[in-house]
Design goal:
alpha+beta; eight-stranded antiparallel sheet; Jelly Rolls; globular; 60s Ribosomal Protein L30, Chain: A
Length: 436
């Protein structure tokens, strides 16, 4: 243990390890109740420092391939017919996430060429849009020692939500996994993709989370916020026990900001709920992602992100449905080209169910809508099936009488957004509840 302390004090910043990593080691040294675990970590630390120094000398060598059709074979998830088993919608009182009302920004890389960094994004390293053999759509592969800014240019307002899917293809080889960071920043009146914010992203204000992936349910999440480059809020490190269960498949991350309050979910677990975490009066307008360094080589891990969405405003389900007679939401999500409802839709369905329980005389017509991609007739049929699936979920999960529902689908025939834009398409993929 003494040797570990000496090593920490003597090593220079050239080791490339981030501050969060050093903080974790200092806490480890102080906790004598876990000496056996510490001895194993010390060995990993020594190896990690040695390899980090070698990496610093040899430089950051990326894989030659610019496209990825599958994640590393050694870490591919075991699935049936190449697809993950569907996660059943379940009651979880802690999962009360409801997305914002108006979509500000969305990105699934649909229009970006394979093998290239997404149009308008900025980075300190490299990244490329890829497809994965086990999961639909396109994904951005992100790399170690790289910081990424999205191409968003719009303000989020003071009440907003942020969502994205992440895949961490990780397999333990005796060293710490690469840390995965995500965050929200304010660029004020400057360009949201300016090179200035690749290095000095805390200068106005920021919200930052760092996942420390680990095996056996020992993953952690640290959250910090900053004002004018100085610490504003530091949360206690929280366990994210489910994270390792998602290694090799998508996990949905959701953030909800209501003025000063911040809440974060990983999967269906609420990890943080901090009432005074956000700097008052600061408007955020950019997202970032960062993969920190580790001893893993590029072919030994895979990090991917997709399905980014920022939406502002707080939906008032009760007022819209009971008083205005109509409530529309983009927060009920489905598997691609399917009527299977995703688990992260639970919060919205719960919100609707509560309104119906409190107003037992109300009957509603549920109408599904799609964007204009694909065949018109298939879109119509899909929208009808999705509306029926929502009614079924409200009946079976929340015990709402089926006699209170009618269902219908309009396909792509009643757009509320421009199908030529990503944000417009996302607005069109919605479910309406109309009071009868």
């Amino acid at each position: 243990m003494k040797n570990a302390l000496t090593l920490i004090l003597l090593l220079s910043p050239a080791t490339l390890f981030c501050q969060g990593f050093m903080d974790r080691l200092k806490k480890k040294v102080a906790n004598k109740a876990e000496q056996k675990v510490e001895q194993k970590i010390d060995k990993s630390v020594d190896k990690g420092f040695d390899k980090a120094e070698q990496t610093a000398k040899s430089g950051n060598k990326k894989a030659d391939s610019t496209t990825t059709t599958q994640a590393p074979a050694t870490t591919a998830p075991a699935t049936t017919a190449g697809a993950p088993a569907p996660v059943a919608l379940k009651s979880n009182s802690r999962f009360d996430f409801v997305p914002g009302e108006l979509i500000v920004y969305t990105e699934s890389f649909e229009q970006d060429p394979i093998g290239e960094l997404p149009t308008g994004w900025n980075t300190t390293g490299t990244g490329e849009v890829v497809t994965l053999n086990n999961f639909p759509g396109k994904w951005l592969q992100v790399h170690q020692r790289s910081f990424y800014l999205t191409n968003n240019e719009k303000s989020f307002g003071e009440n907003y939500t942020v969502e994205f899917d992440a895949i961490m293809q990780l397999k333990y080889n005796g060293h710490f996994f690469p840390y995965f960071a995500f965050g929200i920043i304010s660029t004020n009146d400057e360009s949201t993709t300016s090179n200035e914010f690749l290095r000095n992203y805390r200068k106005n204000a920021s919200i930052e989370g760092i996942f420390y992936p680990a095996e056996g349910g020992r993953s952690k999440l640290n959250v910090h916020t900053y004002k004018a480059g100085r610490d504003y809020y530091t949360g206690d490190q929280q366990e994210v026990s489910i994270l390792s269960d998602y290694f090799g498949k998508p996990i949905h991350i959701a953030i909800q900001v209501q003025k000063e309050r911040m809440r974060i979910w990983a999967g269906q677990d609420k990890i943080f709920d901090a009432p005074k975490a956000i700097t008052p009066g600061v408007l955020m307008n950019q997202l970032f992602f960062e993969i920190h360094t580790s001893s893993y080589k590029e072919d030994q891990y895979g990090m991917f992100i997709s399905n980014l969405k920022v939406a502002k405003g707080i939906p008032d389900t009760r007022h819209k449905l009971v008083e205005e007679g109509k409530f529309s939401t983009t927060g009920i999500l489905f598997d691609v080209n399917s009527d299977v409802i995703k688990p992260e839709s639970y919060g919205v369905l719960k919100d609707v169910a509560n309104v119906l329980k409190e107003n037992a005389d109300i009957k509603v017509k549920i109408i599904g809508h799609t964007d204009s991609d694909g065949d018109d007739q298939k879109n119509l049929q899909l929208s009808q099936k999705r509306a029926a699936a929502v009614a079924k979920a409200l009946q079976e999960t929340f015990s709402i009488d089926a006699a209170r529902f009618q269902t219908d689908g309009k396909g792509e025939t009643v757009p509320v957004g421009d199908n030529k834009t990503k944000e417009g398409k996302a607005l069109n993929r919605r479910v309406e509840f109309i009071k009868q």
